[in-house]
Design brief:
Number of helices: 11
Order of helices and strands: EHEHEHEHEHEHEHEEEEEHHEEHHE
Structural class: alpha/beta
Largest sheet: 9 strands, mixed
Shape: globular
Helix content: 25-40%
Number of strands: 15
Length: 339
């Protein structure tokens, strides 16, 4: 199986290429980038991986799937081009700027019979897998409130439009995780923070989701937060689970590590980074599940070669995008939006 990549910026270079190069039974077949600087980086990182000028050139060289990791503004056209060429597509999130455009891409892919998947890699974060396990095993009892944060202090990220703002960028992960755990949202309330009066690109958000299941999700994201809150705090009738910090796979990838280089060490959280279960005066460590971003590509491989399940169906991403649209409307109009 041959997989190509479009884009060799931070996302393509660190969050896709190491996983593609580590995937057993697959070949990292090429990268589309016209940047001389990024071509040099590719040559340094993967000397045997060819660079191409266009998606058409990459497809002509022979690939079985393509991953699109470019700024949001260019993703739609590239997704459509790949679909028209009959090539299965993985898109970075968000894969469209709004739900209407997202649904249009899904419709085209379904008409052409082409697999379209969205790279929601944080479904395979160590901390999120731990939360899912605790909920599935009933350790926390009936869940009442789910709190989820990805907060950083990164002033250089303020005003960048490549991901559509922090709500679209980080919010895509947090909303996806909340819907995966607790099902559809019925009501959405949100607050956004903007660095400029035009209110185009947000740098922070708070979103409250009222799920049909009765759970309330509170989600925060920021690139200007000096004092980060817990990554997760999950309250249930039988106790509470909290964990601080971010899953270590991002830092490992940025340090040049990969599932191939680390083997069984990849995705393993050091015990001092484990979370806590608390009920009254009782408090105990909870061993973190092993993170496995590479599982996304193993499932994609199975979907394409053995008719397995799409790891992240694009229709699920349409649902998440609908929630993000409602969150922006809520923040700008100062009201709760019913879905």
């Amino acid at each position: 199986m041959k997989i190509g990549l479009i884009g060799y910026g931070k996302g393509g270079r660190f969050f896709h290429a190491p996983l593609l190069a580590s995937l057993p039974g697959a070949t990292f077949a090429g990268v589309v980038t016209r940047s001389a600087e990024r071509r040099q980086a590719l040559q340094k990182d993967y000397p045997k991986v060819a660079a191409f000028d266009s998606l058409a050139d990459l497809v002509a060289a022979g690939i079985d799937a393509v991953v699109i990791s470019t700024p949001l503004a260019s993703r739609q056209a590239l997704i459509l081009e790949a679909i028209e060429l009959g090539v299965p597509v993985v898109s970075d999130k968000p894969f469209a700027p709004n739900a209407e455009d997202a649904q249009a891409l899904v419709d085209v892919a379904e008409r052409r019979g082409v697999l379209l998947s969205v790279y929601q890699n944080r479904r395979w974060d160590s901390d999120f897998l731990t939360v899912r396990k605790l909920i599935d095993q009933g350790v926390l009892g009936r869940i009442t409130r789910f709190e989820s944060r990805v907060e950083r202090y990164s002033p250089s990220s303020v005003g960048k439009e490549s991901g559509g703002g922090i709500l679209r960028d980080l919010g895509s992960h947090l909303v996806d995780q909340a819907l995966l755990l607790f099902g559809p949202a019925q009501r959405v309330y949100a607050e956004l923070e903007f660095a400029t009066p035009e209110k185009q690109v947000d740098h922070g958000f708070f979103v409250s989701l009222t799920h049909a299941s009765g759970v309330t999700s509170h989600l925060w994201g920021s690139c200007l937060q000096n004092a980060q809150g817990p990554r997760f705090r999950v309250n249930g009738s039988q106790g509470c689970y909290t964990v601080d910090g971010l899953d270590g796979q991002e830092a490992a990838a940025l340090a040049g590590l990969s599932p191939k280089s680390e083997g069984e060490r990849w995705g393993v959280e050091e015990h001092r980074r484990w979370g806590w279960f608390e009920q009254g005066e009782h408090r105990e460590r909870v061993a973190s599940e092993r993170g496995c971003w590479d599982e996304f590509y193993r499932q994609l491989q199975d979907a394409l070669m053995n008719q397995g399940r799409n790891p992240v169906d694009a229709r699920e991403a349409v649902t998440s995008t609908t929630v993000l649209d409602a969150a922006r409307t809520s923040a700008l109009e100062g009201r709760v939006v019913a879905l």
